[in-house]
Pyruvate kinase
Amino acid sequence: MAALTGCHFPRRQISPGNSNGRSLTTVVRPGVGHGRSVVSVRRRPVRSSLQLDVEKSTVPLAPSDRSPSEERFGFDAASEAELKGKGLTGLRRTKLVCTIGPACCSPEQLERLAAGGMNVARLNMCHNSREWHRSVIRAVKKLNREKRFCVSVMIDTEGSQVHMVDHGAASSIKAEEGSMWLFTTQNFEGTRPFTVKANHEGFSEGIMVGDELVVEGGMASFEVVERIEDDLRCRCTDSGLLLPHAKLSFWRAGKLVDRSVGLPTLSSKDWVDIDFGISEGVDFIAVSYAKNSEDIKALKTHLSTRSAESIRVLAKIERLESLENLEEIVEASDGIMVARGDLGVQIPLDQIPAIQKQVTSICRQLNKPVIIASQLLESMIEYPTPTRAEVADVSEAVRQQADALMLSGESAVGLYAEKALSVLSTASLCIEAWAREDGLRNLPPLPRLTSYLSDSIAEEICNSAVEMGNNLGVAAIFVFTKHGHMAALLSRNRPGPPIFAFTDDANTGMGLNLHWGVTPIVGNLFEDMERNVKESIRFMAAIAAVKLGDVVLVVSDLSSVSPATSAFTQSIQVRTVGQ
Ligand SMILES: Nc1ncnc2c1ncn2[C@@H]1O[C@H](COP(=O)(O)OP(=O)(O)OP(=O)(O)O)[C@@H](O)[C@H]1O
Ligand SMILES: CC(=O)C(=O)O
C-alpha cells in the first residue's frame, strides 16, 4: 500500500477492517491513475463495490474555471462564524434545540438564537395558536433564506395529557400549604380565585378522596378531600407555583394512577397540528407520550401519503410504556427525545439519569439521533447564570455523546434565552475537547446494524473511515450524500474530526441538523465525483475551513454509475489540500 505523502501525522498502515475488528476480503491491485493505490473489495457480482483510494496527489486550490465554489454551496452562517473564530477543532459537535415561546419569537430574537448556534427550533403545539406557530416557522425559514442560517423546525405534539387550562391568574400563582382549591372542567367566563380548570372532561374519573394530585411532577401537591360530581376539592399539602398549562398527575399509595389509559397517543387536535406542520414544511415532528412502535409507524404512513419531503418522526420517551417498548420505538423512529420533564412525573427522579444513559446508548447503537430535554438550565429562566449542578448535568449529557441538548422554558419564557444557549454551547465545546483528548478511544463497541450486503458495505466503509480519520489525525471528514445515510453512519462512530456532509438535497441537510458532529452543506453536486471532491475542497479552503497541507478524508455514497460496469461505487479517499 502506498505511503501517504505530504501528511504531518504518524503514519499507520491503513486497513479496511473496521473498529469491531471485522475485515472485508481485500484484493490489492496495482495503482490506477497517478500514484494511487486502490484497495477494492468485491464479494459476489453485485452492483456495489467499495473503493479505498489513498491518493498522493494534492487538490490544487486554483480557482475553478466555472462559477466560484463559494456560490455553489450553502454553508450555515453560524457554523462559519464558529469556524472562523476557533478553527476546525472549535466546531461544536453537540446540536442545540431551542423551544420557541413568547420570550424569543420576534425575528430579531430568532436571529440572535440562530447566530448563537440554535440548530433546531422547537414549537410545542400545547401552547399558543396555530397562527402564532405559523409566524414563527415562516420567520425561521426567512432567516435561513435571507441570512444563510440552517435552522430546522420541529413541532412537538400536545398528546393526550391532563393539564391546567386556567388557574385563576394571568401567569404563575403560588398555592400556599393548607389552602383549598377546586379542580374542575366547568365552563365559566374569566377566572375564579382558587379554581383550576382542567383540559380533559374525564380528568377526575376513578379518582378517590385521599388520592394525591401532583402539579408538574412536584411543583405543588394537593390532597383530594371531596368529590363534587366530576370536580375535586383539594387541599394544598406542598406549596408551590402553578404555571400555565402545568400537568396534573394523580397518585395513590405511592403509585401513579394512569389517566391516559384508553386515550390515543395522537389526539384529533394532534392530527390537525400534524397536517399544519406538513403544510408549513417542518423538518421534524416529535410525538408526545409515544407508547410503542405502532404510534410511530401510523404517523410515518400518514406522512408518506401527505408529504413529498421527508419529515422525520421523533419519539418522546416520557412514559412508563415507552420504556417497556424502548427498542422497538427507537427502531421505528428517526430519532428520540428523552423528555425528562414528563418522565419525572411517571417515574422516581433518581432513576432518570440511568434511563437517560440507557436511551442514549441504544440510540447510538441503532444509529438514531437522541435529544436530551428539560430542565438543563432551569434556573436560567430567572437568573443570568446557571447553577453548578446544571452545568454538571449538561456536561454529563455531552460526555455521553448525546446528539443534541434542548432548552425548554429557558428559551421559551426565560429572561436569558441567548445566555442559556451560549452556556450550552460553551459547555459542549469544553467537554467535547476533553473527550477528544481523553475518552475518544474508550467508546463501547458498536453492534452491526444490518445484515443486508449493500447496507453493511456502507456501514463498514463508515466504521473504517472513522478509524482511519482518527488514526491519521485528518483535519476533517467530507461525505457526499444523497439521503444522509452515510453521514449518520459516520456520526454514529463519533469521530475526532468534524464531518462535513455535502448534499444536493436541502431536506437531507435539514435532517442532518440533529446528528452529532455533522455540518450539512447544501449545494449543487456533479455526476463526476472527482469534480465534487475538488470543488468541495476549494470551497472549504475559500472560507478558511481547511488550509494548505490539511488532509481530509472523503467518503461518498453517491451513486456514480459507470457506463461500462453499471457499478455503484462507494469510496473512501484521503486527499491533501494543495497549492
Ligand atoms: N409557544 C409558547 N407560548 C407560550 N408559552 C410557551 C410556549 N412554548 C413554551 N411555553 C412555556 O415554556 C414552558 C416550557 O416549555 P416546554 O414546551 O418545553 O414545556 P412543557 O409545556 O412542559 O412541554 P411538554 O408539554 O412537551 O412536556 C412551558 O411550561 C410554557 O410555560
Ligand atoms: C420536553 C418534554 O416534553 C418533557 O420533558 O416532558
Remarks:
- The radius of gyration is 26 Å.
